[in-house]
Write a structure and sequence with these properties.
The structure holds two protein chains of two kinds.
Chain A (H helix, E strand, L loop, with lengths): L1 H65 L2 E2 L9 E2 L3 H7 L13 H32 L6 H9 L6 H12 L4 H8 L11 H29 L3 H9 L4 H29 L3 H7 L10 H11 L5 H35 L1
Antiparallel strand pairs in A: 1-2
Chain B lengths: L1 H7 L10 H28 L3 H5 L8 E3 L1 E2 L8 E7 L5 E10 L2 E6 L2 E9 L3 E3 L1 E3 L4 H8 L3 H32 L5 H10 L9 H10 L6 H9 L2 H11 L4 H9 L4 H12 L1 H17 L2 H6 L8 H9 L6 H33 L3
Antiparallel strand pairs in B: 1-8, 2-3, 3-4, 3-7, 4-5, 5-6
Helix pairs in contact in B: 2-15, 4-15, 5-8, 5-9, 5-12, 10-11, 12-15, 14-15
Classes of the chains: A mainly alpha, B alpha+beta.
Chain lengths: 338, 350
């Protein structure tokens, strides 16, 4: 009964689309006669590639030009050409480790905040995801449920994640109530610099842990069982099995996870922005928020500077992506050799 | 019960507790509390009245003050437990309050008045749900409109994504033509280009095409996903070319081959892409935040952020609307989790 209903619902959903396709067939047949198969290939490619070209490729190209112009005007034609001045402004610094000595101090604050975030968050995230995957890979009853427990926050929107945690971490929130119950002093989680930074790290880990644990779990499950059985027969200790079998065979997945987590951490924005808004002060101001604020939100908009900053960030991401592609290729050739 | 105990006490190899068993139990236990706890706390909090939310320490369940209708008073009066001077306790209604002194009356006998210091009474409360947190922002504020905008963006973007991505994937997997690898490289190369890198120029293009402050401005830049083309192409490559040749023999047009043969066979991959697309578009934040600056075109995410950024944060509305924003994604999670986890494990795409 249920399957019949499902089929009927499916048929009802597809019916108008099928009709549309049938109506489209005669004119497209005519097109095929005129333009040939080559024309049809173009026809199939054009919608996607046109949207792709206008909204991804074109912005990517003009971003370079954009970053060499100045002024508040939005359209490229009205902007003044300044060459590398925006980059010079960004990079003008006496001591790069001290943002206060830089011309564009907010940029360097964002750079260092992001760097700190990337190191701390990716390390903790990968460790937690690995432990979770190892535990989920044990002989558990109801493994599907446990997997769902950790995966659940992955689908939540960053705004929802940010608001949930803002509600928990606020001064009169449940976490401080729990601290009081335990006899500890309440903490202004989102108002003290160190804790606010820790909050953005913790909340983003909470939100993404399940995603990476899932990739690692898939890798663990692909390790052949007989390897462990053979090792057990040889009397290998479990710790040794982990270092000699599990970890090396998990390495390809682990590398993918690390690079993906790095790429995502460099771009951190949504959750942190909703949680702390970059504050207190500039303690959790990260790169993407800097670009957004300089380009759109601040009173003194400077789209050229934002474009230059985004290109510098894009450069970092390109390097990371190339590393990932290289790792992927190495994994592929390994797979073929096997 | 014995099965539960058996499950809880299952250990690695035999009778003794191995340290890994302890870690497993602790990790999973902490996982349930940490992962589900915040969401449960959100839902419970969203049903509290503003007064209940302001309480510290907070109560676990939402409570509402009990009220009673007394003759001679227009509004229902809140009930309190009061300890009389002679030591007996009574449930009285508050008729009036001036400063720290309240005038209490007995609901059964409204003429019996008593003046009580507010420190010497306890409100009578029962578990009660403040559903008006949900109805008010939906009806009186713009949240219903925001929800409509979000649904429109999600549905339209997903349909366009499926159609354009599958057409391109079909051309890139089932035809040999010059420039095919160039197109493929272009797509793979942009796989990892995030929005934040092209934010400024993309915004100028959206403005130039008159799409600023329109929902189409939110939809169009997101639909030509390289990820989608890549995913569908990989799947279409597994469809044997013989089927297509046979269809050509029978005078099927290229469009018919795409529509009647390849697309139905790609259904599993299309389903995965559809689910991902729905979640992506529903959750999108940064791009709508940039494109939409007028309230009537806000999506739920942007609207929520705007309300949360107000000087006087109205948590009772925000928490309720956060729950509403969560609902579609939770439904997807409950019913379609298998597809998503299989998709991620297989491709590493999110």
């Amino acid at each position: 009964m249920a399957t019949r209903l499902k089929h009927m619902a499916g048929a009802a959903a597809v019916a108008p689309l099928a009709l549309l396709a049938r109506v489209l067939d005669p004119p497209l047949r005519a097109l095929q006669r005129v333009a040939g198969q080559g024309g049809m290939i173009t026809f199939f490619l054009v919608p996607n590639m046109a949207i792709f070209g206008i909204f991804v490729l074109l912005p990517l190209c003009i971003n370079f030009v954009y970053s060499m112009t100045a002024g508040p005007e939005l359209f490229l034609a009205q902007r003044d050409w300044v060459g590398g001045a925006q980059y010079a402004k960004l990079l003008d610094c006496e001591d790069y480790t001290r943002p206060a000595t830089c011309d564009e101090d907010l940029f360097w604050t964002a750079v260092w905040n992001t760097a700190r975030f990337v190191v701390v968050q990716v390390t903790l995230l990968v460790v937690c995801a690995t432990v979770t995957a190892l535990i989920l890979n044990r002989e558990l009853r109801a493994r599907g449920f446990w997997r769902a427990v950790f995966f659940f926050p992955v689908l939540l929107s960053p705004v929802v994640v940010g608001l949930i945690w803002r509600w928990i971490l606020q001064r009169d929130g449940i976490l401080n109530a729990a601290m009081l119950d335990l006899g500890l002093d309440p903490v202004n989680w989102l108002i003290e610099r160190g804790w606010a930074f820790a909050a953005t790290v913790g909340v983003t880990i909470w939100a993404h842990l399940g995603f990476y644990a899932l990739i690692l779990l898939a890798g663990l499950q692909a390790i052949p069982r007989d390897l462990y059985e053979a090792a057990e027969m040889d009397g290998t200790r479990p710790a040794r099995m982990f270092w000699r079998i599990t970890l090396p065979l998990l390495m390809p997945n682990l590398l993918v996870v690390i690079v993906l987590a790095l790429i995502r951490a460099v771009q951190v924005f949504d959750e942190a922005y909703v949680l702390t808004g970059g504050g207190p002060g500039t303690a959790t101001l990260y790169m993407t928020q800097y670009i957004y604020e300089v380009g759109f939100a601040s009173l003194l908009k400077n789209p050229g500077l934002a474009a230059a900053a985004s290109i510098l960030m894009g450069g970092v991401l390109v390097v990371l992506t190339l590393v990932q592609l290289g790792l992927g290729r190495r994994g592929e050739s390994k797979g073929k050799a096997r | 019960m014995s099965r539960v105990t058996a499950f809880l006490t299952r250990r690695r190899g035999g009778d003794r507790w191995h340290w890994t068993d302890v870690v497993t139990v602790l990790w999973l236990g902490a996982g349930v509390i940490l992962m589900f706890g915040p969401a449960v706390w959100l839902v419970l909090s969203s049903l509290k009245t503003p007064a209940g939310l302001a309480e510290f320490p907070p109560t676990l369940l939402p409570y509402a003050a009990e009220t009673v209708v007394v003759e001679g008073y227009d509004k229902p009066l809140p009930l309190f437990t009061v300890t009389r001077e002679d030591g007996t306790e009574a449930v009285l209604a508050e008729a009036r309050r001036v400063g720290t002194v309240a005038q209490m009356i007995d609901p059964a006998n409204p003429d019996d008045k008593l003046r009580v210091n507010i420190a010497e009474r306890e409100p009578v409360r029962a578990v009660g749900f403040a559903w008006e947190n949900y109805t008010q922002p939906l009806v009186e504020r713009n949240f219903f409109l925001y929800a409509q905008n979000s649904v429109f963006v999600t549905v339209v973007a997903t349909i366009i994504t499926l159609v354009t991505n599958s057409m391109a994937a079909f051309a890139l997997s089932k035809y040999q033509f010059r420039g095919r690898s160039a197109v493929l490289i272009l797509i793979v190369a942009t796989l990892m280009i995030p929005l934040s890198v092209i934010l400024v120029p993309l915004f100028s293009i959206i403005s130039a095409t008159g799409l600023f402050n329109t929902l189409w401005g939110v939809i169009l830049p997101t639909v030509a996903t390289p990820t989608g083309v890549f995913l569908l192409r990989q799947y279409m490559l597994t469809i044997p070319d013989e089927i297509i040749e046979a269809a050509r023999m029978d005078h099927a047009s290229e469009w018919q081959i795409y529509w009647r043969i390849v697309l139905p066979l790609t259904a599993p991959a299309l389903a995965v892409l559809a689910i991902f697309s729905v979640v992506w578009r529903w959750n999108d934040f940064l791009w709508p935040l940039v494109v939409l600056s007028r309230q009537d075109v806000y999506t739920l995410q942007v609207g929520l952020n705007a309300y949360a950024g107000e000087l006087n944060v109205q948590w009772h509305f925000i928490l309720a609307m956060t729950v509403v924003t969560m609902i579609p994604v939770v439904l997807v999670f409950v019913f379609l989790q298998r597809f998503i986890t299989a998709g991620i494990a297989g491709t590493g795409v999110k």
